[in-house]
Write a structure and sequence with these properties.
The structure is a homodimer of 208-residue chains. Chain A is mostly helical and 208 residues long. Chain A contains nine helices and no strands. In chain A, helix 1 (6-24) crosses helix 3 (48-60) and helix 4 packs across helix 9 (178-198). Chain A binds a DNA duplex (19 and 19 nucleotides) through residues 2, 4, 26-28, 36-40, 42-44, 47-48.
DNA sequence: ACCTGAACACCGTTCAAGT
DNA sequence: ACCTGAACACCGTTCAAGT
């Protein structure tokens, strides 16, 4: 009746994560969704962390990477950033599962990294600098995406808490256009890193 | 024998988190550290999420904010960023606990936000833009810190996994100076956002 | 008011047993 | 080879009971 395999398990697990959230993402819940005993899963998957990795990879494979057209490398990076943001916003629970189970690299993640680095290499920076820019920009941008989805899941703090912190309050009452903020951030990071790494001297030093 | 109070609980819980890690951060473990029954904690703390908030706040209070000297606003932001990075690197488990239990705002976090926004306001950007810069830069920088500490805890992928992904491999074999990378990132983000928000037209648009 | 022991409803995972 | 039921060692939390 079951005919389990890794692919079916991954799809079911992703569905469970989406529907029941990170807390409801359970070996038992995934087994239930497949109409199978929880222990059946262990025949195809090492442990829960491996199942989490499967889920992350399934989410990454849902949409193909943006086509590398003839646009500028900056636009290419921005397209990749938007692709990433759309992905995690579509599966907020998966980002939590990813962190909880320390799944940082999956097959598809390598492909994303390749593309990211290759775009930075088109910038004309030398190899080492392009790598540095790729690493730091990706940490900043993926970090911003994670923070955004996490905050989107949590509610707004109580007004009483915000009473004495005008900045934090302004931060929440401000009209927000998250997509525009994200574009601003990505382009600022990319331009800012390129500018700093282009001028050969005083790369990270404060005195310009 | 016990004489429990919230402050003692917070200190013990932070110690447990530091010593036993996020997985070992348990109501029972904290109670043990205090020589008390697990249920005693519930008399002073609503639930585990509230205890997690206590831990985050205790970590934040360990060191005072950097003194706001007469430096430039850019240096002030950089000092704050370093303060944050040092903090989370000293307590890597706490960042995980923070995420797991959705603790985003604690009393001390408001103080940090106030300072961050006020520094951006010294940049001369108008109020809305300063707020936008403060929000986006903080998401990027705190996100980068979280990613860095998470990756530091996890090991390097197996060489066999990296075989076919030259960029990812280069990324790991590259000589890294995390502190310098961090300074580069922070200053690039700050300068990049300021540059983009300073020129009134085409704020987030790609065509410069 | 503060603390405790026993218990409940969950987890991930092991293990012997079934086909 | 693949799946199962029962069991183990944990969780967070509730509840009645003690002082």
């Amino acid at each position: 009746m079951a005919e389990l395999d890794v692919e079916r398990i991954a799809a079911a697990a992703l569905a469970v994560a989406d529907e029941r959230g990170a807390a409801g993402f359970t070996m038992r819940a995934v087994a239930d969704a497949l109409g199978v005993s929880p222990m059946a899963l262990y025949h195809h998957v090492e442990d829960k962390a491996a199942l989490a990795a499967l889920v992350v990879d399934a989410a990454l494979n849902e949409h193909e990477l943006p086509a590398p057209s003839s646009q500028s490398w900056q636009d290419g990076l921005y397209d990749m950033a938007v692709w990433t943001r759309d992905l995690w916003r579509a599966h907020p629970a998966v980002t939590r599962i990813r962190n909880e189970h320390h799944v940082y690299w999956t097959p598809s993640m390598y492909a994303v990294a390749e593309r990211w680095v290759s775009l930075w290499q088109q910038s004309g920076l030398d190899f080492e600098d392009a790598l540095t820019a790729a690493v730091t920009s990706s940490m900043a941008i993926s970090g911003a995406v994670e923070t955004e989805t996490a905050l989107a899941e949590s509610g707004v703090p109580a007004a009483s808490d915000l009473k004495w912190t005008p900045s934090a309050r302004a931060l929440y009452t401000r009209e927000r256009d998250p997509a525009a903020d994200f574009e601003l951030l990505v382009r600022s990071v990319v331009d800012g890193l390129f500018a700093r790494l282009s001028q050969p001297a005083s790369r990270a030093s404060g005195d310009t």
